[in-house]
Amino acid sequence: MIVHTPVMLKEVCEYMPKDTKLIVDCTLWHGGHAIALLSIAQEAKLIGFDVDELMMNKAKQIIENAETNPSGFATSPWHGRKYEENLDSRIEYVHGNYADIVSVLDGRKADYILNDLGVNLEHFKDVERGFSIRGAAPLDMRFDTSKGTSAADLVRTYSIDQLKNIFEIYADFSSPKALEIAKHIVTTKKQKPIETTQDLKLVLNDCGLGDKACTVIFQSIRIEVNHELDNLQRFLSEFPKVMNSAWRCCMITYHSTEDRFVKQAFRELVATWEYLLVQKKAIMPNYKEVAKNRAARSAKIRILEKL
Known about the structure:
The chain is α/β, with parallel strands linked by helices. The protein folds into 2 domains: 9-122 and 229-306, Rossmann fold (3-Layer(aba) Sandwich), CATH 3.40.50.150; 145-225, DNA polymerase, domain 1 (Orthogonal Bundle). The protein is 42% helix and 13% strand. It has a 7-stranded mixed beta sheet with strand order 3-2-1-4-5-7-6, sandwiched between helices. It is globular and about 60 Å long.
């Protein structure tokens, strides 16, 4: 069974405020962070968001079995610990987007908000979801497969300028190279549909892109398909409304644009003199964690505290 390894788990747990009563986990994934936080804050309850219902159902199974089978998280501090209760009873599962945090909490106030902006490892391992350049699968990339526009639909309908913009902004390609790739995609799709991951990869290969660059293009399309940066900006404008005093918000970013948004939003809140940065600089994973979990290599943590 594929299990997503929680990134920077030690740091996430260390910075949780003492006497936390309500935790919000904005991206539940397989429950790794949630299990650790609840095992430390033993009086707390947790609201866990996940827009991907398949991942949420798997998280429920893992959390329900955490008392007798915590071995799926061998790197976690609770490995081998016996729980006195079922952690699942302390979790409220929300199949929805973390950007809707204000309406979901409905007047409740959180003590610790964790928002891990990464992608679940299973999205890439399960090639049928269309996130990976490996294997042949429908070009989907939606976290919530019940609604929204798939990556194939995006590629089919976007203009040269629209494609160029996402490759420039989300993939950090130069303007000339982003334009070249966008033009080649539009020219190709007029001749034959681009419907699978391999269809798109072959087009990118024709532009001289290797696997690493293809992965970055796939990432940029995934960000656009799932409106990831739009949701992040909505969250950053809303989350202060649901926080208790002496609370903290912990953000884990992996992409330069995400980190820039978080850094700017936190800076603006600090300027009101009602908030402070727990650490002035972003907290980075140590080399031991990166050696064990490559997904952590680009992670950055920024933590904001309300005075």
